[in-house]
Amino acid sequence: MQALRADLDLARANYTAALARLSALSGVTQPYTGLSGSVLALFDTPPAVGPVDPGRSTIYRTALAEREAANQRLAYERKRAIPDITGSLGVRRLEREGATALVAGVSVPLPLFDSNRGNIAAARAELAGASARAEVARTEAETELRGAIAQAEASEARVRAAQASLATAQEGYRLARIAYEGGKSPLIELLTARHNLGAARGVVLDAQAARFATHAILARLRAAPSPETRSNDLRKEPALRRSCHCACCCRRSRLQHRPPDPARSARTRSRFKGRSVKR
Q1: What is the pLDDT of residues 94-104, one digit of tens each?
Q2: DSSP secondary structure letter of residue 11
């Protein structure tokens, strides 16, 4: 019993830490205190996974951005090798002749000894490396996506198998209870059936938690859910509860607590100031 209580306290601590991380990632001022529903039921209807598209992976997009930056640096270094022609125009006063002369000049540097070949070669090598890294990132993203999709499908199969085992355990417990109440079986058989039912429920919970984790990994690799998944999540997503000390507000809304706006309250008081109430 003490071990089970310790496990329960650990689970509660992990739950509080997860809510704190979620609040920090969401950028809210008031931390979340709980969920109004179970997140394990979000994937009771399997979402549409869609084709493998490594172009939506954040790792591959980062590699593409680095390759584009390297390409721009190469173009910049090539332009630096072009002579920079400079023109000048001015006015000069000739005191001896008592006249004003117009002075113009053109400066054309000749890159005889420094044609920026070293920087161009370095930028070209950097571009080649960035292109190779982008190709590696694309291959790795595609491999991870295929693996995540396979894991998601396997998790769905494990959940279905666990639910079938749970149905069998429930039926076995029902029959054992009927037999015990009719005096046809001893108490030990009823207790064994009850234990098997609890173990089957634990297996279902573990399978659902593993399914949720695999779909979370898949969503992270894809960087954004598909439109079908997004619409299903918006309809079935459980509401988050924030910490609130206002009882009436918590009864009206389970989503969030909005503190009163002082400016709006002042405008309301000034609008109704001086008016008499007719009864």
Answers
A1: 777 778 888 88
A2: H
